[in-house]
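Intended use. Records like the one below are meant for learning the mapping from a protein sequence to its folded structure. Do not use them to infer anything beyond what is encoded.
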Amino acid sequence: MSTWRERHDAAVRKQEAAQQAYREATDERAQALIDGEAELGSQAAVAKELGVTRAGINRAINALRKKQS
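Structure written out for the chain above:
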């Protein structure tokens, strides 16, 4: 059996790993949207293809571009 401190520290490590995985997936999704925009010609076309709003596409792309600059 482990102590409460060991369980806490293990949970913190899991949270950090999950947050890192989320950040990576968010960047990968934004890059895929950028690639889709290049292929389909516009963010609106990507949004229509995915059945989401263009604003959501734009926010994801802008967040990645801001992060990269």
